[in-house]
Amino acid sequence: MIKISYQVELADNEIEWQFVRSSGAGGQHINKVSTAAQLSFDIAQSSLPDFYKEKLLAKADHRITKSGKILIKCQQSRSQDFNRQQALAQFIELVAGVAHVQKKRVATKATKASQKRRIEGKKQRGATKAMRQNKSDY
């Protein structure tokens, strides 16, 4: 079982794993060993609560496809097991992140003192620029 939060758990068989060759430099080792881990998870067919499904499908993330699948590829390490753990950690972070509800922002107004400081600064800057001008009488 994969624990997402206190109340939400997923069965191991809901996640599909595929191991492929990593890209980039690495010499002979990289050409013969499949160390990169690819995690695939179908949101619609999962046992996640509807709230999670809706939020995940609405989320703008490059790891979520238009067909409603989460695809995560991890190839940071030369170890297949470490890459698998990293991909799983990214998956849990992505899914658990949609449960966090953002606080509503309360609009604030600038204080009179801060408005006065801003205007004084603008006047001072304008006076400095005015002194730089070459005002010759014609």
Order of helices and strands: EEEHEHEHH
Describe the main β-sheet briefly: 3 strands, antiparallel
Helix content: 25-40%
Tell me the number of helical segments per DSSP (H or I, 4 or more residues long). 4
Note poorly predicted spans: none
Instruction: Look at the helices and sheets and give the structural class.
Output: alpha+beta
CATH topology descriptor of one domain? Double Stranded RNA Binding Domain
CATH class of one domain, named: Alpha Beta
Number of strands: 5
Main sheet strand line-up? 3-4-5
Write the layout of secondary structure elements.
Blueprint: E1 2-3, E2 9-10, E3 15-20, H1 28-32, E4 36-42, H2 50-58, E5 69-74, H3 80-97, H4 112-132
Antiparallel strand pairs: 1-2, 3-4, 4-5
What labels describe this entry?
about 140 residues; 3-stranded antiparallel sheet; single chain; Class I peptide chain release factor; about 40% helix; alpha+beta; Pep_chain_release_fac_I; about 15% strand; Pep_chain_release_fac_I_sf
Molecular structure report:
There is one protein chain. The protein has about 140 residues and is of the alpha+beta class. It has a domain at about 1-95: Double Stranded RNA Binding Domain (2-Layer Sandwich), CATH 3.30.160. It is about 40% helix and about 15% strand. It has helices at about 30, 50-60, 80-95, 110-130; strands at about 1-5, 10, 15-20, 35-40, 70-75. The strands form 2 sheets. A 3-stranded antiparallel β-sheet has the order 3-4-5, with helices on one face. A hairpin with a 5-residue loop joins strand 1 and strand 2 (about 10). The longest helix has 21 residues, at about 110-130. The radius of gyration is 27 Å and the shape is elongated. The termini are far apart. The mean pLDDT is about 80.
